[in-house]
Amino acid sequence: MSIYDTQTSRWHHLVEPGISLWQQGIERDEIVSRALAVVSLRAGDHLHLVAIEGGQPCELLFVTAAGRADPAGLEPLSGEPRMAVFDSGQGSERFDGAALAALRGMARRMQLDPAGRQVRRVFDDDPAPGAVAGFAAVEDGLCLIAAPAPAMSLCGAHAPSRVELLTRRADPAASPLMALPEPLADPLQEIHVPHSTAVSYEVRAGDYIQIIDVSGRQCSDFQALTLRGLDAGRELEIHHTTTRSLMGAAYPAPGLHSRFFNVAQEPMFEVIRDTVGRHDTFGLACFARFYEELGYPGHVNCTDNINARLTPYGVAPRAGWEAVNFFFNSRAEHDNALSFDEAWSRPGDYVLLRALTDCVCLTTSCPNDLDPANGWNPTDIHVRTYGAKNLFSRSVAVRMTPEAKPSLTRQTPFHEKTSALTAHYVEAGEVWLPATYRNHGAVAEYHACREKAVMMDLSSLHKFEVTGPDAEALMILALTRNVRRMSVGEVVYSAMCHETGGMIDDGTLFRMGDDLFRWVCADAYCGVWLRRLAEENGFKAWVRPSTEALANLSVQGPESRRILEEIVWTRDDETPLAELGCFRFSVARLGGFGGIPVVVSRTGYTGELGYEIFCHSGDAPAVWDAVAEAGAGVGILPCGLEAMEMLRVEAGLVMAHAEFDGTTDPFEAGIGFTVPLKSKTDAFVGRDALVKRKEQGRFRLAGLELAGNETAQHGDPIFVGRAEIGVVTSCVRSPLLKKTVALCRLDRDYAEEGRAVEIGQLDHHQKRLRAHVVPFPFYDPQRTRLRS
C-alpha cells in the first residue's frame, strides 16, 4: 500500500498486507531516459513523478482540451518548478528514434508542435533517487512528459534512468484502469463477457485470441471444440491429460512447450503471450454441485453457462466442463492438498493464444463470489480476436516489484544472428536465449568449448551503473568482497546478501573509474536493493539499469585469446588483450582506432580461458559477425544454455535457485572465499550474521560422483541409511569425464572425501542412487586452463 506524505512530498510504501495501487485507483507507469509519455488528465486529477534512480530531469508540457499549450494547466503541489523551453534536439542528443517518431505523430494529431513551447522542468535541483514532483490538473487536457538525456557511453556515463508516474483520479470511475487496454492490432472481433456469463465465438486457424482481465483478479474459463470434429459428430475439446503428456509440463506457456491438444492429439492452440505468469489452467469450470454443497443451490455457474452457449452446436450438456482456468491461482501441495488464493492478475492483464485449427470457443467470466478466487467480487472479461496476418512476439511478463509495470520477454540484440541458427529458445532473465543450435546440439557445443572456442549470447545478465561520490561506499556496504582494494580496470566476483546472511545474488563488479562501477548479475532485484541501501544510508550514489543498452557476448575456450587478438584493438594506456589478466578488463575497439567500441573482460562461466565482450545493443550484430569470422578458422561454434549447464557444473560454478537462494549463505553455497571477514574491516550488509554462520554453519557445498548413468534431479535428498544429510543442487552427465557428477549441499559432518551416500528418488527410500563425495571442480580442479 502506498501513501503520499504531503509534509515530505514523498510516497511511502508500507511493507505489510495492503491494497495495491490499482485498487486505490492510482495508475502507475514508468518513463525511461530518452523517452516520452502522454497522460490524459481531467480537472482535479493529481500527477506525481518519482525519480526511481535519480539524475533524470523531466519536462512537462500541458495541452488543454482545446489544443492550447498552457503551463498553467498544471498547478504544482509543492515548490515551484522552473520553466524551460521544450527542445526535441537533434535526435541522439535528447531522445531516441522511437520517441521522436511518437512525438511527430502526436504533433500531427494535435496539430500542435511542442518545439519552443513553455514547459515545467523538474529534478534539475533535486537529482536524488526518490525525489517527488507533484501537480494538479486545473482543467482537462493531455500532459506530455519528456525525459531528455544524451546516449549512454560504453563506460556507463549517462546510464538510463527511470521515473515513476503515479496518477490519482479525482473521479476514480473515470480512471483508464476501468477501461480496456488499447488493442494489440486491428481486432476482428470485440466480445465483452459481463461477469457471471459466458460467450461463444468462432475462430479460424491462424487467428489470435486475446483474453483480457478487465479489472484484475477475475478468473476466466476457456474451452474450445474443433469445428471439423463437430461436423463429423465428434466432440474434440482441449484435453488436459493429453496436453500435459505431450508437453511434459503442468500447463503450456510461451516458448517451446506452448500447445494445447485434444484427445485425438491434434494441436488446437498455442500460447503466444502471458502477462500474468501463474494460472491453475486445468480443472473443471465451476459447476452446480460445487455451489450446492456450499449451501447455495441455484447459484449461477460457468458449466451451465457453457452448456447454454453450446446448445446451438448440438453439444449435449455436461455436469462439469473441463476447462483452461486462466487467472485462477490454485496449486497442488506436496501433502496432497489442493489450495487456492486470489488471482495474480492486474487490470489489463491478458493471455494471447493462436488457433491452430478452426474452432468454436467458449470464454466465461466466473460468477464465484463465495471465496477469494475472484477477489470476492466477480468482474468482467473481454475477448479480442486478431487476423492470422498479424505477428506478435512470444513473451511472458515479469514484475520486479508488486506494483511494477509488467516487462515482457524480449529478444536480445543478437537475436537476428542466433535466430538464423536455431529456433530452440528458452526464457532466461526476461529475454529469449538459445538452448541449443541446429546441426550441433549441446554435446558438440560442449566439446567445442573444451577443445576450441564457442560464442554465447549472455545478454540476459542484468547490468547496473553505480555512479556518484558515494558509489564506492555503497558497493562496500552492499557486497561481501573488499571493494576498497579494487583498482580501475579490475573485476571482482562477489556475493550480495540480506541482513540474515542469505544470498540475494552473486555477480561481478567492474570498477570503471574512481566513482564508477558496473554490477553484472542475474537478478534484476539487485537494482532495487542497491537503491534502497543508498536511500537508507543517505549516499550520494545513483543506480541505473543499463541491461537493454549493453549487450554481452561470451567467447570461451582454449582458442579464445588467439581469436580475439586478431580483432581487439586497445589504446596505449589500456592493457592489450594478449596481456589481459584474469578478472581484468580493457576498454577497446574492434579492428582498429575507428572500430566498434567495446569493453572486453577476462571473465566467464565455463572454467576455460575466456572473455566477455560488452557493446552497445545496436552494435551487437556486427560484433557477432566479427567474432564468428575471426573464429571460423579454428572451428568456433555458437553455444546454448544446455551446453553451458554442463560446463559450469563441471567447473563447480554456482547458480541462483540451484546452489543458493535467499536462505543460503555464501559458505553453504561454496563461495565462502567471497567473504573475507578478516581482511575486510568495513561493515557490510549481513556481516554479523555471516560471522555466526561461518562458526555455526551446518552445511557446505560438495561434489558427488554417481555410480551408473542415471541422473539425479535438483532437490533430490541425500541419505546415509535413513538419515537425510543433504540435497542435490545440480547434476549433469559429463561427456569429457565420462561419468555423472553433481553439486550438492551436505551436512559438514558427512562431507569428507570418499564418503558413500545415496540419493533418494520416488519416495526417497524405494529407489536410491549410489554416489560418493569427491572434490570439485570436477574438471581442471586447479583451474590451470582458466589462468592459462
UniProtKB/TrEMBL annotation:
Key words of the record: Methyltransferase, Plasmid, Transferase
Stretches assigned to the DUF1989 domain: 192-360
Any Pfam family: DUF1989
Protein EC: 2.1.2.10
Molecular function per GO: aminomethyltransferase activity; methyltransferase activity
Transit peptide keyword on record: no
Listed InterPro entries: DUF1989 (IPR018959), GcvT/YgfZ/DmdA (IPR028896), GcvT/YgfZ_C (IPR029043), GcvT_C (IPR013977), GCVT_N (IPR006222), TrmE/GcvT-like (IPR027266)
A GO BP entry: methylation
Top-level taxon: Bacteria
Every GCVT N-terminal domain range: 414-678
UniProt domain Aminomethyltransferase C-terminal: residue ranges: 700-780
Keyword Transferase among UniProt keywords: yes
GO cellular component assignments: cytosol
PANTHER family in UniProt: AMINOMETHYLTRANSFERASE, AMINOMETHYLTRANSFERASE, MITOCHONDRIAL
Protein name, as recorded: Aminomethyltransferase
Organism in which the protein naturally occurs: Salipiger abyssi
